TrEMBL record:
Domain of life the protein comes from: Bacteria
Transmembrane segments: 12-32, 38-60, 72-95
Keyword Membrane belongs to the record: yes
Protein name, as recorded: Major facilitator superfamily (MFS) profile domain-containing protein
Keyword terms of this UniProt record: Membrane, Transmembrane, Transmembrane helix
């Protein structure tokens, strides 16, 4: 059975997430700053690849006249998620002091 591109995109993201969880589980008690940075870079690359594929697949389902709205929606949601994530991390750091 041939996998669809949607299924491959989902599988690549889930595989990347599983690898990251496994790395953090194995090295949890031995983590140093550089290891966390390296693991996060690997995770970021995987998310970036999966996001691009997902956006392309979803935009293929839009009519030609609405493809720009699909791009705008994805980029807006991505920027909002980054802003929320940054705010949450800053609040956690503030509370830890």
């Amino acid at each position: 059975m041939i996998e669809s591109s949607e299924q491959r995109s989902t599988n690549s993201f889930l595989f990347n997430l599983a690898i990251e969880v496994l790395l953090f589980t194995i090295f949890g008690m031995l983590l140093i700053t550089y290891m966390v940075i390296g693991f996060y870079i690997i995770f970021g690359i995987g998310c970036g690849i999966a996001f691009g594929n997902t956006m392309t697949i979803v935009n293929l389902r839009f009519p030609v006249q609405q493809k720009a709205y699909g791009n705008i929606s994805f980029n807006t949601l991505m920027q909002f998620a980054v802003a929320v994530g940054t705010s949450v991390c800053a609040a956690l750091v503030l509370l830890s002091y």
